[in-house]
Prior knowledge:
The protein is α+β, with helices and mostly antiparallel strands. The chain is built from 13 helices and twelve strands. It binds adenosine-5'-diphosphate and magnesium ion. Adenosine-5'-diphosphate (ADP) is lined by residues 29-30, 32, 34-35, 37, 85, 87, 115, 131-134, 178-179, 181, 192-193, 195.
Amino acid sequence: xxxxxxxxxERLQDSFPGFRSKxxxxxxxxxxxxxxxxxxxxxxxxxxxxxxDMEKENEKWTPPPLKSLSSQDGHQRRxxxxxxAIKKIYVTSSPTRILNELELLHDLRDCANVCPLITAxxxxxxxxxxxxxxxxxxxxxxxxxxxxxxxxxxxRSLFTALASVHRVxxxxxxxxxxxxxxxxxxxxxxxxxxxxxxxxxxxxKPCMCHDxxxxxxxxxxxxxxxxxxVTANGAIGxxxxxxxxxxxxxxAGTRGFRAPEVLFKCTEQTTKIDIWSVGVxxxxxxxxxxxxxxxxxxxxxxxxxxxxxxxxxxxxxGRLHGCVFETSIPTIGSHGFKxxxxxxxxxxxxxxxxxxxxxxxxxxKFLERCLELDPAKRISAxxxxxxxxxxxxxx
Length: 395
Ligand code: ADP
Ligand code: MG
């Protein structure tokens, strides 16, 4: 395995003329479906940046504080990092997808807590993106140890990033722990991986969830209904004579983190899908279980969500987008469970008659706002930053 990695590293250095005089590859730090990421030293870092402060030289690149974001010319001068992350995007990724990621990263360069793109280059079909290296820990190593205050600080950092991304009308679409690099020591984090991100409204047709209630009811009656029937053995049933227009909706994202409207194939998805995913992260931390949702496909994902929220709320959520949700699975009750119950159960505190702490209750109140099934009612990133739970560590 190690020799494979060093072989790949050699190849990467050979494919770009001049690579070796600019960067020294150190190690592989990530491997995903669409890319491999390496840590590297920028060999020229001190040459073109005389503001580099040798005393502060360390491998921690930190994002600028939110307040200092707008300097006179609108561009924040960032300290040049000594270490970089080199993201080699697989040639199997489509050129439009690669361009999309680089373009969005460029647009987001001044956003707080978003890891900025330093540069990108291409040699034939190979593309690499260069980002400042951000020291972070593996989520699995710290999430069980987090206090409620830690959760508030972690989420404040993530929501700061999301608020600035959403403000410019971009949906990240793949919010999950591996795409939010967090350093529990400095308590700072940066959002990475805009490989699935898109501009709001770019890939969308009107969905009835944006109509008012009366209009929606009328359209729902008139339209041939889309039915998702989930039966006990997991098979889905569809109406026999299906005259519905086929519906194509963006489903990009990671299983377990997809918002209900994505599962219901809403064609007019908004930035609120990212908020749901943050809710899943918070649910994971509070319940100390990762992954919390473990569905193999979208139908299973609906079953998992329905088990928590109950059949009635799930039906209502489907109706928003013109879907009829039916199920005969006995473990899905009509009203589901309260989130505080779920958290007590998953942390094995329900038998002992233990209660949640006041802090935890406050976190759960916030969680309910993130896991609102109706995207229109779900809290926005901007509102989240004003929520009492995220202001916990601020005074
Ligand atoms: P993919 O599209 O393959 O998921 P990501 O951009 O999410 O690519 O990067 C994959 C992994 O590489 C991340 O989960 C993280 O561990 C590491 N990584 C990415 N960018 C950085 C960075 N700027 N600093 C440190 N590590 C990074
Ligand atoms: Mg990723």
